[in-house]
Every structure is written in C-alpha cells, then in structure tokens.
Design a protein that fits this description.
Elements (H helix, E strand, L loop, with lengths): L1 E2 L2 E2 H27 L10 H23 L5 H28 L3 H4 L10 E4 L13 H23 L4 E5 L1 E2 L8 H4 L2 E4 L2 E4 L1 H7 L4 H16 L10 E10 L2 E10 L8 E2 L5 E7 L2 E5 L7
Parallel strand pairs: 3-4
Antiparallel strand pairs: 1-2, 4-9, 5-7, 6-7, 8-9, 10-11, 11-12
Helix pairs in contact: 1-2, 1-3, 2-3, 5-8
Length: 289
C-alpha cells in the first residue's frame, strides 16, 4: 500500500521519527522508576542487560530526534533504517551475552576426568544416591557430604592445590530422588545440578556455606579459620542449555606453604594428600620432623 506516493512502511518510519521525542521521554520515565541503575544501587550482571538495552534505545531515539526537522524525507528514512538495523544488532548482542552465553569456558578443561588437581562433587549437602532421610539421620548425612568437600580441600592444600566443582554429577543414572533429577541439565553430555536450588531448599546461602566449610577446616586441624583465608576461594558458575540454567560452584584451592595435619579429639594426627585422583590419608610420621 502507498500513502501520498510513499509505501506505508516509509510513512510508519516517518511517524516514528516524529514521535521519537515523546517515546524517549516515556522510556526515560520508565527507566527512572524500574531500572536499578537509577536507584543508587550497584548493579550486577543479572540486571545489567536491561540497562544496556535502555542506553542503546535512547541512542537510537536521539538520532531520530536530531533528524526530525530535516527536509529530505528520503534521507531521513535511510538514516532511520540504518539506526534501526544497528539497534537490532546491538540488542541481539546484549541478549545473547546475558541470556545465552554461560561460564563454560571457565570449567571446560575441568570436566573430562578427575585428577589430583580436579575433584567433582554433586552437591554440598544432598546425597543423590540414597533416599531422603528424616530428622537427625538426614542432618548427619548433610554434614558428612560437606565434610567430604573440606577433606578434599585439605588434600589439595597439602599437595599441589586444585579445583573442586560442586554441581557436576558424575553418575546421574544412579540418582534415586526425582526432585534432584528435575534440577539436572545436560551440556556436552555432562550432567549438572542447579546447586542454587539445593541451597534454596536447605534455606542456606553461600556465605553460610563458606562459614561452615571454614569451621570444618578449623575443627579438623585445630587451626584458626584465619589460617585458611588465603588458601581457597569459591565462585558461582552459570551453565545454560536451551533456556535452562544451573548454577554450580567452583572452589579453587591453593597449595599451602606448610603441611596441614588433621587432629582428632584424642590428639591423633593424620595427613590428607591427593593421589590417583582421590583424597587419601598418608602416614604423617614421614612428614613430621
């Protein structure tokens, strides 16, 4: 269809150019009410994509406003089409980064096999290969799951350091709980569990998990928690597949400059190290001067 000799899409573009100033004001009002960047809060990557799209849109509208009074309507239409094409490309890039890309590149070299430097744990607290246990029996299992992680950490501290991935499920076919199976996603034929969902179900947060791990390390070694402050870090890793996301955790362990011995309630001394891709207890007498 043509209106006054122009195709209707060109007429629509010219109308948008005329209304760009009002659209820009409305978008500005919306942003000041709804975007965290305008609330005085420091933004993070979970919301930064909306701030970027706001800026991209305002830049496009600013061009429309600048060319609004130009006499050459054909030129105005060409400029508007170029700007709209640029808007589509930039918006796609933002959405692709924040909605599709994940952190696979941070763990891709850690998912082929367990070694002295790499350990996999399915969860922080939840046994996946046994039925859920009630009461104190269930809480004891939760404590044991977390202690297995801190034991692996001590073994790495006493060896060459390493990395523990919490949320990589080595044997998904052995999971007996449907609620755990529902939280799995598969990427490159590897199963990942949404550990954030586990923490939510357990009513825990990452800071609490870190404190518990520090307490276990301190309790098992009779050292202060400060001794471990610079020996390990933990960070969330996002794994995305077809719109589904699992948050796993990457624990990076550094080699200690001195051996860290385990000491039990009877003052018996043990030493954990890494060998053959697992954490083992070795004879501490060989290492005590």
């Amino acid at each position: 269809m043509e209106i006054d000799g122009r195709p209707d899409h060109e007429i629509a573009i010219l109308e948008k150019i005329k209304s760009a100033r009002q659209i820009s004001k409305s978008l500005d009002d919306f942003a000041k009410t709804n975007l965290k960047a305008f609330s005085g809060l420091i933004t993070d990557e979970d919301v930064e994509w909306s701030n970027k799209i706001y800026l991209i849109s305002q830049q496009t509208l600013a061009t429309f406003i600048v060319i609004e009074d130009a006499i050459d309507e054909s030129w105005k239409i060409k400029v508007a089409i170029r700007e709209l094409a640029k808007w589509l490309e930039l918006t796609h890039q933002v959405l692709n980064k924040f909605e599709i890309e994940d952190d696979w590149d941070q763990i891709g070299d850690l998912v082929t096999q367990e070694t002295n430097l790499v350990e996999w744990k399915s969860t922080f607290f939840t046994p996946t290969e046994v039925k859920q246990k009630p009461g104190e029996e269930g809480r004891a299992l939760e404590r044991e799951m977390l202690k297995k992680i801190t034991k692996a950490m001590l073994g790495m501290m006493n060896s060459d350091g390493g990395t523990i991935l919490v949320g990589l499920v080595e044997n998904p076919q052995k999971i007996v709980r449907d609620d755990i199976k529902d939280q799995l996603i598969f990427k490159n034929n590897i199963a990942f569990l949404d550990v954030d969902h586990e923490l939510e179900i357990k009513n825990r947060n990452l800071d609490e998990v870190k404190r518990m791990m520090q307490d276990y390390l301190s309790r098992d070694t009779k050292l202060s928690v400060e001794e471990f402050n610079n020996l390990w870090t933990i960070e969330p890793i996002s794994i995305k597949v077809e719109g589904n996301e699992a948050i796993i955790y990457k624990i990076t362990i550094h080699k200690s400059d001195k051996l860290i011995f385990n000491i039990d309630g009877e003052n018996k001394i043990a030493l954990l190290k890494r060998a053959d891709g697992r954490t083992i207890a070795v004879d501490p007498r060989k290492y005590i001067n």
